[in-house]
Amino acid sequence: MSISKFLEKKDWDIVVDANASFFSLKFKELTHYKDLLYLLVRRDFVFIYKQTILGPIWLFLQPLLTTLVFLFIFGRVAGMSTGDVPKPLFYLTGIIAWSFFSESLTKTANVFTINAPIFGKVYFPRIIVPISNIIGSFIRLVIQLVLLFLVMIYFNQTAGFKFEFSIGLFFLPFLFLLLGIFGLGIGLLFSALTTKYRDLSHLLLFGVQLLMFASPVIFPLSATPKPLIKIMSYNPLSAIFESIRFYLLGTGEVVGLNLLYAIVFCIVSLVLGILVFNKAEKSFIDTI
Amino acid sequence: MDSILEVNNISKLYRLGEIGTGTLGNDLKRWFQKTILQQQDPYLKIGKENNRNIMEEGDVFYSLNDISFSIRQGESLGIIGRNGAGKSTLLKILSRITSPTTGSLKIKGRVTSLLEVGTGFHPDLTGRENIFLNGAILGMRKKEIARKLDSIIDFSGIGSFIDTPVRRYSSGMYVRLAFSVAAHLESEILILDEVLSVGDFEFQKKCTDKMNELKNAEGKTIILVSHNIDAIRTFCKKSLFLENGRLKMFDETNLVADAYMRVHHEGFEYKTNLVEIKFQSKSFDIINFGIRNGECPPFDKPISRDKSIRFEFNYIKKTVAENNFVVFKYKDIEGNYICTMDSYNQLLIDKQGEGRVVMKTHPFFFNTGKYRVDLFIHGIFEDGVRPIFEQRDILNFEVVASTMLFSENLGVDEGYLHPVTNWRIEENNQV
């Protein structure tokens, strides 16, 4: 647009008002920055493994190694049941889904602290960065799901596991999306707080670990230890993890009401998270 | 013409003291009072000035206090002020990195801020990839960047290194690439913070030329913060002088810069023209000492570096006993002697009575800075030379960068003087 052209316009393009409403979101602005979103995702994905020896192989090694550890600790030592499904398959599914969720949450929660050097020097809609993080996590998830399918093929027709192609598989993207939304929403809520109270990010890390044991990740909902049953029923992650396993491995159960509860919970947390984030991005740089 | 940028009553409040631990209680109290009880912030002190000398810990203070101004399209703005005057805060608000506590800001068109060179550069990405990333961070579309890619690479002078990761770049190359991206932004307002002071001389010149081109040919509005008053003087039509967070002056740059200079260097006052002031001694009187510029009448303001400076005075020589010559001693602002000039070989005053002495420096003799002059008249006696008149600090004057050449002071003005010397290339016939 030429200079003379925009001078003909009477209205302002950018208005910053200290008394602006809490709910003033700038969705229009976001479309202008979609190229930035793409470039940030690309940067994170292509270069995160550039300095490592094994490179992208870590994407596979990480869940596999964790599965081995879980097999030993929870399977052998603690002797926890995983239902009918072979233990490696059960753990791997849980680990891949959980790491997607926890990565979404913690990365989003620390987005201001990590990106302070850039945020302090140039303006762009800050929400671009958490969104790019989530997209990056999604790509990693998809790659790891390929690994999961390989392992599923290996275990097919053995020891109580038989892979069945069902229409339910098409629900999986939706369920993972829900997981991502939940991580993003909670992360956004915390992002505003971690700028002010740094110790919250440590606390959050600890909290996420605890949350894993309060979610049916390493054991099925049906085998939940007694004291945790009440927490489980309030935890929206329960329904999501159970559903993921149901459609993938054919174990567990899907309760429509629980799933609806999880959906509402996720959407509410996302909306609240965006509002809080939107408020925090205006002046977080003063406190960081 | 309409304004392109309007700032209305902007204030920015900061809270001092620890952030984080220990303030959670206060935060809750403030939130309770403000949100639940709808009362005023109990920690807000209205009208407190941003004076860092009298601040207590845990206080709040205004980094900016009720700033209003507006600029028109193509009108460049300089922001002047001491450290802590609120310059950076204002820049951050203008570039929307932080938001004001009160007041509003309206802008037409796109704004790009260059508060740092190479924001978001990733060391592992190649120069080309960083152009795209950096450009996108600064608000460019991929298509725009692709269209200007050749021009950006060309301007940076990086050449074939463009596909090398930037971690292998020299700092000069890094800066050159980063500025090239910024220079090609398609925004109507460009905000620059001291970024001019990077790179080598040649690139500096390129940058300033480019900025002049952006300003003059493309009609862009440039907002410049710099400690280099000369840069602001030569580049910005209007300026804004901040002091303790308040807007002290907003006017034509020359007026603002002069005002800033008067305030900023306490004790330094221009003393370039001593009309009807007479200094007397037993055998010699000096009157009307002053600096005259060839074209201009006597003036009381900085002297442009590209002008020759004319020192003149009238004298009355009362004795015939000895010949005299004139000595000027130049000092910097702190009183360190820089050089001495005397007329011994060229001018001897031998006749009794009145006369007028004129001494001219060549253009660019003094580099930019503030100078003080001591005046001596020496007498040549049979037993040696000794002063018969002395007046220390008789004049003060300031030399500023040429208004004609914006970049002439970059890199070649180390030190105080820039005397004319003889240079030539000699054919070397010997093997």
List keywords for this structure.
heterodimer, A: 288 residues, mainly alpha, 13 helices, globular, disordered N terminus, B: 431 residues, alpha/beta, six-stranded mixed sheet, five-stranded mixed sheet, 8 helices, 22% helix, 32% strand
What does this structure look like?
The complex is a heterodimer of chains A (288) and B (431). Chain A contains 13 helices and 1 strand. Chain A has 288 residues and is mostly helical. In chain A, helix 5 runs antiparallel to helix 8 and helix 9 packs antiparallel against helix 12. The relative contact order of chain A is 0.13. The N terminus of chain A is likely disordered. Chain B is 22% helix and 32% strand. A 6-stranded mixed beta sheet of chain B has the order 5-6-7-3-8-9, sandwiched between helices. The interface between A and B is large, with 41 and 54 residues. Strand 1 of chain A pairs antiparallel with strand 4 of chain B, so a sheet runs across the interface.
Compact overview of the structure:
The complex is a heterodimer of chains A (288) and B (431). Chain A is mostly helical and 288 residues long.
